[in-house]
Amino acid sequence: MLTVAALYRFVDLPDADALRAPVETLCRDLAITGTLLLAREGINGTVAGEEEAIARFLDALRAGPLFGGRLRDLDVKLSSAEAPPFRRLKVRVKPEIVTFDGGVTHPALAPASPVAPGAWNALLDTPNLLLIDTRNGFEVALGSFPGAVDPGTRRFSEFRAYVDGLDPAAHPKVAMFCTGGIRCEKAGAYMRARGFAEVHTLEGGILRYLETVPDAENRWTGDCFVFDGRIALGPALVERPDHAPETLR
Length: 249
What we know:
Blueprint: E1 2-10, H1 16-29, E2 33-39, E3 42-49, H2 51-63, E4 75-81, E5 89-93, E6 113-115, H3 117-124, E7 130-133, H4 137-142, E8 143-144, H5 159-164, E9 174-177, H6 182-193, E10 199-202, H7 205-212, E11 221-222, E12 224-225, E13 232-233
Parallel strand pairs: 2-5, 6-10, 7-9, 9-10
Antiparallel strand pairs: 1-3, 1-4, 2-3, 8-11, 12-13
């Protein structure tokens, strides 16, 4: 059984180019595969390896000299896989750790309000709440929260056009969610910058919700698409192997 770590952190990394090679070496030394993106705005990725290797890797990111403590608050969701979910390792430097608007929107400038998974259900019961699934259409089709709006996007960068077509005055309270939280941080900041007064995001995303909320209280319906060989996860982040890749795009 392999351990899979989905991770991200928005943090200033002006040395992203210089970090690429040592991060790749660290992964190869630990026989870790997957994809990691580095940018001036932070780090994002999903990797897999033996349990001890992943633990050593995360400790190196959070507390080792490579990042000098800048990733001490790294957001990580751990799950498992019976077969290797990645064929190889890719460590790349990009303009953004999630493609949106070329780095114009920064979550720190106009942040949305994160809501812990344990408090998410209460927020869903708020009258006149605009609940938005910020993921792409094929992801939404696999599973979502009841009542959530599907913006109908094919890629995350199209979400800006959806927001630009909304009237902030007509939506005084907004809540949004995504797979692991990273897209919501960008989307939430974008909405706040465009005049939406109250914007909430699901802290840790769908994965953290499925990981921590008991089955009896779980309002998620369907499965959660993940961008690796496992295709989809269900409650408690258990792999759901009954989805063919060609049916999901």
